[in-house]
Automatic annotation (TrEMBL):
The keyword NAD applies. This is Glu/Leu/Phe/Val dehydrogenase. The keyword Oxidoreductase applies. Keywords: NAD, Nucleotide-binding, Oxidoreductase. It comes from Nocardioides agariphilus. One of its GO terms (biological process) is amino acid metabolic process.
Length: 356
């Protein structure tokens, strides 16, 4: 296994959670609490190894620090992963055991939904912990956070369209969506309502079928490779991370990349190649922050219209990222990092390490 201190040299705390009775094996990572408690979802996924899970949770936690900072929230960055197949390993016993570990951090980490977990799961976790967001509406929560995640991605896409074509609309443009699960399916509706032509793909055949039934005019293709072969104006990755590889960037016909997936850049340097090819990249942690804005609002007594209004600010934030990129002569991904780091530096020094 990799050296935790070496891999997580930027991180404040990494907690390994083990409960043999329930089968729970989880890792909670806190990247930074300079702006407040670390907020980030719980991913339930069948990782091939503990090492793979560790690397993922560290990357995701760091991304949450930048996402929350750029969104203007008084929250730091954290994330959790549960190792296992949610379709077979998820149980009340396991989720409650996980909730006890979340509780043991006494508010330094606030959890929510992510891949493989849902609002009903957060209700179970909340039976053991007070530090849970993204709960069902019936239990006073915000419900499915993918609703505003998709709305925020759409706002970022509008800002991208304005930067490339001069108008903040996708009308008449062809948008390719990879992944139509939680976020992608809601994004389809925003785009079709805006007059875009939409092409979709997903590894889950049922997800594709649901979209085709709900949106008969949307074209479904069998793979990401087939999607990339289409003449796209916008490419929108909305599944797992690492979607923007060197190979994908070289084959892209799209002028814009804007999607809800976390950690889209497969490695450092991809953002420069996108710029060299004349492709505008809307940084993922900038445009997909609608979900975290939604669950953060829940901490103060959830109001959907208030949260939606805050998420609409992603349009202006994306604009600002592009402006800084032009002014500083750097790719948008670096500009977004700089804006987030500036806020962490200027505001975070007033707080330091978060202790409840």
């Amino acid at each position: 296994m990799s050296d935790v201190f070496e891999l997580g040299s930027e991180h404040e705390q990494v907690v390994f959670c083990n409960d043999p009775a329930s089968g729970l094996r989880a890792i909670i990572a806190l990247h930074s609490t300079a702006l407040g408690p670390g907020l980030g979802g719980t991913r339930f996924y069948p990782y091939g190894s503990t090492d793979e899970a560790l690397r993922d949770v560290l990357n995701l936690a760091r991304g949450m620090t930048y996402k929350n900072a750029l969104a203007g929230l008084d929250l730091g960055g954290g994330k959790a992963v549960i190792i296992g197949d949610p379709s077979t390993d998820k149980s009340e016993e396991l989720l409650r055991a996980y909730g006890r570990f979340v509780q043991s951090l006494n508010g330094r980490y606030l959890t929510a939904c992510d891949v493989g977990t849902y609002s009903v799961d957060m209700d179970v976790v909340a039976r053991e912990s007070r530090f849970v967001t993204g709960r069902t509406v019936a239990n006073g929560g915000a419900g499915d956070s993918s609703v505003l995640t998709a709305y925020g991605v759409f706002q970022g896409m509008r800002a991208s369209a304005e930067a490339v074509w001069g108008e903040p609309t996708l009308a008449g443009r062809t948008v390719g969506i990879a992944g139509v699960g939680k976020v992608g399916r809601h994004l389809v509706r925003h785009l079709t309502d805006d007059g875009a032509r939409v092409v979709v793909t997903d590894v889950n055949a049922e997800a594709l079928l649901r979209v085709s039934e709900e949106f008969p005019d949307v074209k479904g293709v069998s793979s990401t490779k087939s999607l990339l072969a289409e003449r796209l104006d916008v490419y929108s990755p909305n599944a797992l991370g690492g979607a923007l590889t060197d190979e994908v960037v070289e084959t892209l016909t799209a002028k814009i990349v804007c999607g809800g997936a976390n950690n889209q850049l497969a490695h450092a340097g991809v953002e420069k190649r996108l710029e060299e090819r004349g492709i505008l990249y809307a940084p993922d942690f900038c445009v997909n922050s609608g979900g975290v804005i939604q669950v953060a609002d829940e901490l103060h007594g959830f109001d959907f219209e208030r949260a939606k209004q805050r998420a609409s600010g992603i349009f202006e934030t994306t604009r600002k990222v592009f402006e800084v990129a032009r002014t500083d002569g750097v790719p948008p991904a670096i500009a977004a990092d700089r804006l987030a780091e500036r806020r962490i530096r200027d505001v975070g020094r007033l707080r330091g390490l978060y202790l409840r």
